[in-house]
Amino acid sequence: MRHLSAAAAVPSTAENGYQESAAARSAALVQSYRQLADVFHDILSEHSLDNLLERIADTLAELVPHDTLSIYQADEAQTILIPVFARDKWADNILSDQSNFGEGITGWAALHREPVRTNQAHRDPRRKTVPGTPADEPEALITVPLIARDLVKGMLNIYRLGEDASFGDDEFELATRFADAAALALDNAQIRTRLEYQAQTDSLTSLYNHRYFHERLRAELTRASRTRDSVAVLMLDIDDFKRVNDVYGHGTGDQVLRDLADLLRSALRGSDVVCRLGGEEFGVVMPSCDAADALSLGRRLTDALDQVDFGPAGKITISVGISQGPEHAMNPRELVACSEAAMMTAKARGKNQIVLFEEGAAERPESPSVHVRDVRSIAHLKMLQGLAGKLNRLNDVREIGGVIADELRLLIDYHNCRILVIEGDELVPIAFRGELITRSGEQVDFPRSKVGDGITGRAATTAEAQLVANTLECEYMVMIPGTHAIEESLVAVPLCYGARVIGVVVISKLGVDQFDEDDVRLLEVLGGHASVAL
């Protein structure tokens, strides 16, 4: 008995080795989980989708060493897995092989929403070989669904190659936990990418919008100045488009706009940028082109339109104005004003014309303010007069708010618009329009805010318009609960009835310095009509 007791009290060499090995594994695991905690913050802070995929690959390689990696983006509604990233000898083959939920080990894991570890993936009956890759290469696989907001956002695969390759239990657990953070980060990046796309894209035609047009033109003019190059700007407007809407209906009018957008895409070079600027007006930025190139494009467009019937509307024509930077102007707004002045000349000469802007003090717009007042003032005045008539026929305050938000989009390109009225010491939202969501009437569920709080509350308190170039840098900005901190421009204009503020209209747009004083003045005029109706 003493012998047995002594034996129990003094561990054998084998037992010592096991305990030391277990302790080493435990210490390594603790270190891995500490590293995992740091990783969560690291990848969740990455907003660029492309950079995020690189970050996921780099970080996971440190946590769970592997030989190859692939990431798939999932379309759960269509049950499709789309390869978006691969670090593999056969990366090109992998990235060209779209598959379905249920196909292969990865598809099985996506369909069942379960992580899978198989240390002999090449012998797994669920396997599916990617075309062009070795069919029976020995490998171990961990594949984990990336699930966020109860949706499969993608799949994360890591492989070890060779007959003796395997993943341990701890590594499988680490990879699964890492995938939780990767899923959240991927979801955030996808939301941001979608927001940015919607913020710079016209929803009807899928062309770039007014905001992107000016951003791209500014960038191209800067590049042209640096490289002593030129940029051509072509502005075009559908002639007598109001007749199409009045005679055939807005559905036909919308289809005409979509068909014209398709025609414009097909006629342009890959480097040209075509945008819908609003209504029936389009703009084209042509890098490294001069006026002659733009005139040639204009002629191709008018010739193409001669050969096309636009459904019930039949033939349409366009009036085209062209300018060239930096010869005609270096400032983006001035250059656009030159093209629009030429386009208005084309209209005045009988429409269905192409006009090149002509140098000369008498014709050249002197400033952005001249452009806004002279080129667009008549159209805006008519729109505002029409708005006044619409509002005067309405009695429900929420219907009025919805009409204001809808009509405002025709005047100013915005991302989000909120209409609020004052009740006691609170600002109550009555309408919201945005890129992702539209609410009006009883469905509005944005929180109330106090008069005096934030940018909107400041406009209500001071009875003065607030023009904010970047909300993140505004000292009195207050975040709306549930929204993300992003760079955006904002204008808040009080709705005044006499000396009394009765509400506020707020517009915002992704990006810095997206609005100017002309937008504020236009919003103030609209606010005057709205105040009378409310």
Task: Write down the CATH topology of the largest domain.
Answer: Beta-Lactamase
CATH class of the largest domain: Alpha Beta
| Helix count from the secondary structure assignment | 15
State the end-to-end CA separation.
98 Å
Determine the strand fraction and express it as a percent band: 15-25%
Whole-number count of domains:
3
Shape: globular
The H-level CATH homologous superfamily of the largest domain, spelled out, is: GAF domain
Arithmetic mean pLDDT: 83
What's the total count of β strands? 18
Low-confidence stretches are 1-19, 360-379, 436-444
Percent of residues in helices comes to 40-55%
Structural class: alpha+beta
Main beta-sheet strand count, sense and barrel state? 7 strands, antiparallel
- So, CATH architecture of the largest domain? 2-Layer Sandwich
Rg value: 30 Å
Write the layout of secondary structure elements.
Layout: H1 2-9, H2 13-44, H3 49-63, E1 68-75, E2 80-87, H4 91-95, E3 99-100, H5 104-112, E4 116-118, E5 139-148, E6 151-161, H6 169-199, H7 210-227, E7 231-238, H8 241-248, H9 250-267, E8 273-278, E9 281-287, H10 291-306, E10 318-325, H11 332-348, E11 354-356, H12 368-392, H13 397-411, E12 416-423, E13 426-434, E14 438-440, E15 449-450, H14 454-462, E16 466-468, E17 488-497, E18 500-510, H15 517-533
Parallel strand pairs: 10-11
Antiparallel strand pairs: 1-2, 1-6, 2-3, 4-5, 5-6, 7-9, 7-10, 8-9, 12-13, 12-18, 13-14, 13-15, 16-17, 17-18
Offer a few descriptive terms.
Alpha-Beta Plaits, alpha+beta, 6-stranded antiparallel beta sheet, Beta-Lactamase, disordered N terminus, 15 helices, 534 residues, globular, 18 strands, 3 domains
